[in-house]
Structure formats: structure tokens, C-alpha cells
Design goal:
The protein is about 40% helix and about 10% strand. The chain is α+β, with helices and mostly antiparallel strands. The chain has two domains: about 45-130, GrpE nucleotide exchange factor, coiled-coil domain (Hemagglutinin Ectodomain, Chain B, Alpha-Beta Complex), CATH 3.90.20.20; about 135-165 and about 180-193, no CATH class. It has a three-stranded mixed β-sheet, with no helix packed on it. About 5% of the residues are buried.
């Protein structure tokens, strides 16, 4: 190393494209050149159009094949999910059939069996992501409940659910159905009309 100054840098090889990056991958290619076209000079426009149309048709065929594969995959996933859901319900059906086989037995035992099957069915729907809601005694919420009537002088504060006629299942965006409820009107906290 000498004290005469800095050594000169080696010249860099930059591509012809002004916005490109330096490096061997881009060197020697002009703007708009495809990699397979780098060595071409003049070309027949009709041949170029034919080549581009061929590429276009191949791309359309690839897209069509992709759509068909996606539809098949979606159908397969749907049928698999239906099968998993049905499999969750099979024990409930088995127990209902057993309850009917013993319908001639003592009525108390049959009622207890039906209650057990009902609890089992509620567990299944809860595992599927739609638990039963207990809305009685809560403030009325029109996004979760459907008021089908009002009850005057119920002793509950105004706007409170006093009776659930049909229970709701699920929460928020996964709500299967809203609960049908009776709502207090003119209770202790509100003056009677």
C-alpha cells in the first residue's frame, strides 16, 4: 500500500435499465426484454403476436384449471365438515332410539332419559360453537334477542327479559338464531302508563 492516495475502485457493471439493481442477473438486458428474448434482434411482428396469444391462452387455461381445483377442494372441505358435524350428532340419535325402545317402561325413567339426551344435544351444539344462551333476567339486547311481546307489572325493571320463549344459540357473528323473549314494560323502575 502506498501513501500516494486512495486506490482506484474497480468499475461496476450496471444494467441498461436505469431503475434496476446492479448484479449479474440483470446485466446485459435492456428495458422490456424477457429473459428468453435477450439474444433476439429483429423479429416478425406476426410471430410475436402469435407467441403472446399463445401465452395468453395458456394463462387462461391455467386460471381455469386453478378455479376447478379450488371448487373441488371447497366441495371436499364442505362434505368433510358436514360429516364431522353429523358424527357429533350420532350419539344423540342413538340415545333417542334407546329412549323410544324403553317407552313402555316406567314414565319417570323415560323422562329422565329424555332429559339426559336433551343435555347431550346441548353439549353437542355448544362444542360446534353455538352454545345456548341464558337470557332471562338480562337487559333486552335487540342484536341478540327478538322481543315477541311485553309483560306489564312483572316486578322486573323496565327493558328486562322476563321469559324466554325460544332460546338463542351462539354469540355475535356466530349467532345461529336470536332468542325470542318477553320483555318487562312498566316495572318497578318505570311509572305505569
Amino acid at each position: 500500500m502506498s501513501d500516494t492516495g486512495p486506490e482506484p475502485e474497480e468499475p461496476r457493471s450496471w444494467p441498461a435499465d436505469p431503475g434496476g439493481e446492479p448484479g449479474p442477473a440483470n446485466s446485459g438486458r435492456g428495458r422490456g426484454d424477457w429473459p428468453q428474448e435477450a439474444g433476439r434482434t429483429e423479429e416478425d411482428p406476426a410471430a410475436r403476436i402469435s407467441e403472446l396469444e399463445d401465452r395468453w391462452r395458456r394463462a387462461l387455461a391455467d386460471l381455469d384449471n386453478y378455479r376447478k381445483r379450488a371448487v373441488r377442494a371447497l366441495d371436499l372441505e364442505r362434505s368433510g365438515e358436514r360429516a364431522r358435524t353429523a358424527a357429533e350428532w350420532l350419539p344423540v340419535l342413538d340415545n333417542l332410539e334407546r329412549a323410544l325402545e324403553h317407552a313402555d317402561a316406567e314414565p319417570g325413567a323415560v323422562i329422565q332419559g329424555v332429559r339426559s339426551v336433551l343435555e347431550q344435544a346441548r353439549d353437542v351444539i355448544g362444542r360446534l360453537g353455538f352454545p345456548r344462551r341464558e337470557d332471562e333476567g338480562e337487559p333486552f339486547d335487540p342484536t341478540r334477542q327478538e322481543a315477541v311481546g311485553t309483560v306489564a307489572d312483572s316486578g322486573a325493571p323496565d327493558g328486562t327479559v322476563v321469559r324466554v320463549l325460544r332460546p338463542g344459540y351462539g354469540e355475535g357473528e356466530t349467532q345461529l338464531r336470536p332468542a325470542q323473549v318477553l320483555v318487562a314494560k312498566g316495572g318497578d323502575d318505570a311509572p305505569a302508563p
